[in-house]
Amino acid sequence: MATAAQFFYITVNSPNCHLTAKRSAFSRQLKDGGKSYSGFTDITSSRRKPKSLSLVCNNSSPPSDISSTAKIRSEVLSPFRSVRMFFYLAFIASAGLGGLIASTRLIAALANSSRGAEVPEILKGLGIDLCAVSIFAFLYFRENKAKNAQVAKLAREENLSNLKLRVDEKKIVPVSAFRGIARLVILAGPSAFISECFKLSAPFTEGLLERGVLVVPFAIDGISPSFEFEENEELEKISRRKRLWQLAPIYAPEWTKWIDEQKKLASVSPESPVYLSLRLDGRVRGSGVGCPSWNAFVVQLPPVKGIWSGLLDGMDGRVL
Hints:
- By secondary structure, this protein is an alpha+beta fold.
- It is 41% helix and 19% strand.
- The strands form four sheets. It has a four-stranded mixed sheet.
- The two termini are 38 Å apart.
């Protein structure tokens, strides 16, 4: 028994950036003895009239690659970086001024033979100033490089948080809506790869749901992945597996662009199937090529409910 995936596409109707998103009739149907179960949640009708969703944006200039939100988050994550960079610049200016003064004294001493005894001391001071400029310039540029890398990474995460997901037939939300609620695992690859990951996740469904894991399958080849269930599988178990795999990305070009950028930064082949796991706070926890280790998620992540709820919410592992 197989289910068919949903596809969304968006067409541009006018130069004023009026976008019309048309949704094809989506149904993930499970047929058993004449009965049909549609969707991954409480969707019972097997056929629905196609709906349309209109999105309208203004004609303002496009936003810059680095949003103000990413810069603010960078300041929050590294609150003393700006202070350090300020002092580095102050020390560079001070040492540079001292070097300039020492240079003028050295020229005057070399021009006057009576001051020849001062040359070694002046050279010593000039050397100290030049070393100080070099050291603090190195520290400043290293700090600035780390800042730019962090801001760029946070900007990519913000771009990811703005991508849209379909929860059910009537609800479309951005990825950011799941912050503090679920740990998303994004799968990007051919439909056969996604189907294989679906099969491998079956034994760990209960543990993954207890830890707030939700899967976002994205077929890069445009073919609907086949999610098959055993004929003798319990209906309740099927419902829980559907819940784990209920999210569907919409507006494929934006998802494709973001994933391709990530692969390029990681020097991964564009055709390679990859996964990306997010923390509860929306930051990237881990990534890799191929199917993720579902068992590792169950072992490493704390449950989101019960006695450990809240206390270990942020202990999702290190941030990449």
